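Retro notes (design track)

What went well: tokenization of the new backbones is finally stable.
What didn't: we kept losing track of which sequence belonged to which structure.
Fix going forward: every design gets posted as structure first, then sequence, in one message. First example under the new rule, 343 residues:
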């Protein structure tokens, strides 16, 4: 089969299109023919080795540690089950599926993700990929396209994990940073579906698309951001869904209402943060880290997708052999929505 692998950490030049054996599903696994695979920032950061390690923030690392090379990237897979290993229900063969890409620290419904397909194991930048049968969700009846289904796992899973951990309730005011990106746009859509009042931060050319996705108001990030947010929500913010971090945390924490929750799932604006801790404890605020989703969150997401309760936006599609070009397009951040590839 054709696959795109990274041979080491580095730029797009470390990616190669190769002919490799079709993986054989082991006991408890299925083999999925990939129809569409979506790109994420984690693809860029895993390729670059940009995640660091607890003991050395500057170390080159994958999502949760050293990457075994060569590695087939790609966390977000939609496709059809074509074969199975031992101890797997035969009824899955032929079903249209989405793969939960998380590797969990246990089997329970609230297990934490400690690894990711495409980083800690081979992923979907290929014609075929194996996955545990327990992590394959039957989406045969979903009206969403394969491209839209592939857009769901990482971006929408991360967004739903943030919303669940932040305990967002109907009628609350939520602020979404990086709202034109994959996770941000997903957060806007899901928060709006939850009945929240959605404020979004984006740049001028993309504000229309963010508003169309469900934001009640879009704040331009260009200048005087904290004051613009205060003007849009003078009563304060209940929940922040933040993939930017950096200066936004220190500037924005005073905008939280009593008992507000600031949920962080990214660091596009910088991973070193300074804030006035008095704004935290005097107002019973919480800063919550959120890495992807739990199995329970992912099942909720799949239920939402089966009834088309969300409509992922597809920005562009590339053939698999243009993976390097697709990643370069992702890195430019000129698009709104998700970039996908077709093996």
């Amino acid at each position: 089969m054709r696959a795109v692998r990274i041979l080491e950490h580095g730029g797009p030049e470390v990616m190669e299109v190769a002919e490799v054996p079709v993986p054989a599903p082991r006991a408890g696994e299925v083999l999925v023919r990939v129809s569409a695979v979506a790109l994420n920032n984690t693809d860029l950061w895993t390729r670059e080795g940009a995640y660091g390690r607890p003991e050395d923030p500057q170390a080159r690392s994958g999502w949760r540690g050293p990457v075994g090379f060569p590695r087939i990237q790609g966390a977000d897979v939609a496709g059809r089950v074509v074969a199975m290993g031992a101890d797997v229900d035969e009824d899955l063969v032929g079903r249209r599926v989405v793969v939960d890409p998380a590797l969990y620290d246990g089997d329970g419904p609230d297990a934490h993700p400690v690894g990711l397909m495409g980083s800690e194991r081979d992923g979907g930048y290929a014609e075929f990929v194996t996955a545990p049968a327990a992590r394959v969700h039957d989406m045969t009846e979903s009206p969403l396209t394969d491209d839209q289904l592939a857009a769901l796992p990482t971006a929408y899973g991360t967004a739903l994990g943030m919303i669940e951990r932040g305990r967002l309730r109907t009628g609350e005011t939520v602020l979404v940073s990086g709202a034109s990106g994959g996770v941000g746009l997903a957060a806007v859509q899901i928060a709006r579906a939850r009945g929240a009042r959605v404020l979004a931060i984006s740049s001028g050319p993309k504000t229309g698309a963010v508003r169309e996705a469900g934001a009640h108001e879009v704040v331009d990030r260009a200048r005087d951001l904290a004051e613009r947010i205060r003007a849009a929500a003078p009563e304060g913010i209940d929940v922040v869904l933040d993939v930017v971090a950096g200066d936004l945390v220190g500037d924005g924490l005073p905008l939280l209402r009593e008992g507000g929750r600031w949920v962080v799932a990214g660091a596009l604006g910088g991973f070193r943060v300074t804030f006035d801790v008095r704004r935290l404890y005097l107002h019973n605020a919480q800063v919550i880290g959120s890495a992807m989703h739990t199995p329970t969150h992912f099942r909720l997401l799949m239920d939402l997708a089966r009834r088309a309760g969300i409509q992922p936006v597809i920005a562009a599609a590339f053939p698999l052999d243009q993976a390097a070009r697709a990643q370069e397009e992702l890195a430019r951040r000129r698009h709104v929505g998700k970039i996908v590839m077709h093996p």
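Added context from the reviewer: The chain has two domains: 2-155+293-342, 167-289.
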